[in-house]
């Protein structure tokens, strides 16, 4: 699975960018938000099953009120290295040392994909999101660069 979008934000508090879940601990769900593990303003992807979590986060902050292209891929066939984050066409991914579980299976559950909030009622994202794309496979680094280069326009 891959989720691609452009985002622009400032601030450091925990806010939801995207969530496929009934709540943070739903089975076979994922969450993209400000990282609670990295430096303030960094981003994270958290993939969940009943057996554990697989969390990755960016190495630096992206809360600079500038547009950035964000792509998160989840490939559960890769073991503990299944989550990856790309910013502006380049991988920027740190695996959380204590949340690295080999998760398997497909995303299940009758969940709704929420953008900019948790279930439409909390953790509202105080920024802008544009050009949201969802893929049912993990994009390759070359595909991610191609998407970034084709959409690298001057947003206002």
Describe, in plain words, how this protein is organized in 3D.
This protein has one helix at 141-151; strands at residues 2-8, 16-20, 29-34, 43-49, 52-57, 68-74, 83-87, 90-91, 94-100, 113-115, 128-135. By secondary structure, it is mainly β. It has a single domain (2-151), classed as Sandwich (Jelly Rolls), CATH 2.60.120. The protein has a 6-stranded antiparallel sheet with strand order 9-5-4-3-2-10, with no helix packed on it. A 5-stranded antiparallel sheet has the order 8-7-6-1-11, covered by helices on one side. The radius of gyration is 14 Å and the shape is globular. The N and C termini lie far apart (29 Å). The relative contact order is 0.28.
Topology:
Elements: E1 2-8, E2 16-20, E3 29-34, E4 43-49, E5 52-57, E6 68-74, E7 83-87, E8 90-91, E9 94-100, E10 113-115, E11 128-135, H1 141-151
Antiparallel strand pairs: 1-6, 1-11, 2-3, 2-10, 3-4, 4-5, 5-9, 6-7, 7-8
Index terms:
11 strands, globular, 1 helix, mainly beta, Jelly Rolls, six-stranded antiparallel β-sheet, 156 residues
**Form type:** globular
Q: What is the fold-level CATH name, i.e. the topology? A: Jelly Rolls
CATH class term: Mainly Beta
Q: Any idea what the radius of gyration is?
A: 14 Å
* Total of DSSP H or I helical runs spanning 4+ residues: 1
How many separate domains make up the residues? 1
Oligomeric state of shown chains = single chain
Any idea what the CATH architecture is?
A: Sandwich
Indicate the mean pLDDT: 82
Strand content: 35-45%
- The strand order across the widest sheet is 9-5-4-3-2-10
Main sheet summary: 6 strands, antiparallel
State the share of residues found in helices, binned by percent: under 10%
Distance from first to last alpha carbon: 29 Å
Low-confidence stretches: none
Q: Indicate the structural class.
A: mainly beta
